[in-house]
Amino acid sequence: MGIVIKQSLNNTGILFLGFAIGGLNVLFLYTHFLSEDYYGLITFLLSTSNLLMPLVVLGMQHTVIKYFSSYKTKLERDKFLMSALLLPLIIIIPIAVIGSVAYESISDLISQENAIIKPFTKSIFTIAIFMGFFEVFYSFSKVQLKTVVGNFIKEIFARICTSILLIAVFLNWITEEEFIYAIVIVYGLRMHIMMIYAFKLYKPQMVFKMPENIKEILSYSFYIVLAGSAGTILLEIDKFMIPQLQHIAEVAYYSVGIYIASVIGIPSRAMQQIINPLTAKELNNNNIKEVGNLYQKSSITLLIAGGLLFLLINVNVKDLYVLIDKPQYSVGVLIVLMISVSELYKLALGSNGAILTNSKFYKVFFYLSIAMAVSVIVLNKWLIGWMGINGAALATLIVVLVFSTIKIFYVKQKLHIQPFTEKTMKVLLLILVMFFAFYFLDFPFHPILNILLKTIIITIIYVLTVFKLNISEEV
């Protein structure tokens, strides 16, 4: 776990900095410098691009991580990596042709409820390509166990550029329409920077020959791209469906709540970047004992870190919305709580996702992901119509709780390993007690002072209790 902890800490620092910059953007710059319709529009465009992204690169970002360590010679690895760059073209070219021919029909379809979307429809596919190849090049560095620089490019670069562009809108240097196109350029630059760094770490020779196990690779990629698309649907479909059922400004209100809650997932995003290739390596070597060790340690470590963030976010969320000073956004308080619970449960799964996607049972990950995607679409259709944007959050919570539990039992049945120990119950009890002790407690001071006081008190009690109980060596 040494390299996991070291790089996870570095990545966590970068992620927190990225989320701090993103928080400035989402909570203040977007809400005050961009109209609600254009805020909803950029959220819709990026979310829809994320939905397309696994498909346009054929899931190669996952394929690279699974198979790279299985090749023993440089020539085999070069063949494999070049294939990972070329195979997506069999998807991109047909989609581009179909999109060009049917552009008017597609743009009319997705802009029925909100006409503001139509002029920017082409941007969706362009951003998806930039996002997809960024992830492929990022996977090149992950398999070299070098994740920090790529994480910096991913989490910091685009957000700093967004801050600058939002300030440019405020100063009337660019229009809101030009801001949208500038964001597309930012994602293109981010992809090229990642490509340069990836090739600096390992530059494959131009070998235009497929690997010997190309059929196995394509089979895996087929299942993973569908599973990845389904997984992305769980994360992004709500922001796509809301404009089809509500005014596009509702996406802006929803996105603020989602962003606040997503901070809880920072430790997982940091650790998964390094634990995924390590899990793949141990599975390739059939070292199930070490896989189980990583499983349990990642689970308790992430639960402890996420538990503190869960508490700090939810006990301070009302004061945070007061600071935003946009009353219409405060409808997101309940959204924050529901998504926070789902994020915390996902943290408790530890490396479960890495085990499923990198083992011989990867096909079940596909079937589960498809079932999750279908479930969340059906629930969103029903609950958004009934409860508005709160219904979208509830749909996500239900699907995460049900299917995450299924994943735990499946890995337990197949590999005889599971993430939980008696220490898990201690952490959950601590989180529960502190949540009810502080959630309904309101200090009568300025919101910033209220947040500082609660944060200090909760952090001290939580951290001291975790150390006193000696729950995790890594922590």
Q: How helical, in percent, are the residues?
A: over 70%
**Beta-strand level of the residues, as a percent range?**
under 5%
Report the strand count. 0
Unreliable stretches (pLDDT < 50, length at least 5) are none
- The helix-and-strand class reads mainly alpha
What is the H-and-E element order?
HHHHHHHHHHHHHHHHHHH
Principal-axis shape equals: globular
Tell me the distance between the termini: 12 Å
Number of alpha- plus pi-helical segments: 19
Mean pLDDT value: 83
Key words describing this protein structure:
single chain; 475 residues; mainly alpha; 0% strand
Outline the fold blueprint:
Layout: H1 2-33, H2 36-56, H3 60-67, H4 74-86, H5 89-101, H6 103-110, H7 121-142, H8 148-170, H9 176-201, H10 214-245, H11 249-262, H12 266-284, H13 288-324, H14 333-348, H15 352-358, H16 362-387, H17 389-415, H18 422-438, H19 447-469
Helix pairs in contact: 1-8, 1-11, 1-12, 2-7, 2-10, 2-11, 3-4, 3-7, 3-10, 7-9, 8-9, 10-16, 10-17, 11-14, 12-13, 13-14, 13-18, 13-19, 14-17, 15-16, 16-17, 18-19
Written overview of the protein:
It is a single chain. With 475 residues, the protein is an all-alpha fold. 81% of the residues lie in helices and 0% in strands. It contains 19 helices and no strands. The longest helix is centred in the middle third of the chain and has 37 residues, at 288-324. The model has no long low-confidence stretch (mean pLDDT 83).
Can you give me a brief rundown of this structure?
With 475 residues, this protein is mainly alpha-helical. It has 19 helices and no strands.
